Amino acid sequence: MVGPLTKSRFKLAIDCPTKLHYAKSENGYRNQNEGNDFLEALADGGHQVGALAKFRYHPDPYGAGITVDTLVKDDAIRETQAKLAAPGRVVIAEAALAYETYFIRVDVLIRDGQLIELIEVKSKSVSNSDVQKRFQGPEWRPYLYDIAFQTLVAEKVFPGYTIVPKLVLVNKELPCDVEGLHQNFRIVPDASTRSVRVEVASGFDPAIARNLSILREVDVTDVVNKLRTTPLIVAGVGAPHNSALEPFMRWAASIQQQPDAFFGGLTKGCKLCEFRADDGDQARSGRHECWQRAIAAGMLENTGDPTDRRLPLSVEIWGGAAGSKSMAGAVLDAKRAFIFDVQADDVRPTQDKAAIGFTPFERRMVQVEAFRSGPAHVIKEPRLLEMDDWARPLHMIDFETSTAALPFFAGQRPYETVAFQFSHHILERAGDIGVRVRHETQWISVDATTNPNVDFARALRAALMPQGVLQGTVFRYHNHENTVLRGLRQVIANRNDADKQQLLDFIDLVTKPSDAEAKQGVQAGAKTMVDLHRLVQEGYYSKVAGGSISLKYILPAILNEAPGVARYFSQPGLFAGPAVTSKNFSHQDGHVWLQAEYDNNPYKTLPPIFSGERASLNEMLLRLAGDDGEETAINQGGMAMTAWNFTQFADLSADERVAIRDALLRYCELDTLAMVMLVMGLFELRGHPLQLLVTN
Question: Would you kindly state where each structural domain of the chain is located, as residue ranges?
Answer without folding.
Answer: 40-229, 268-374, 378-696
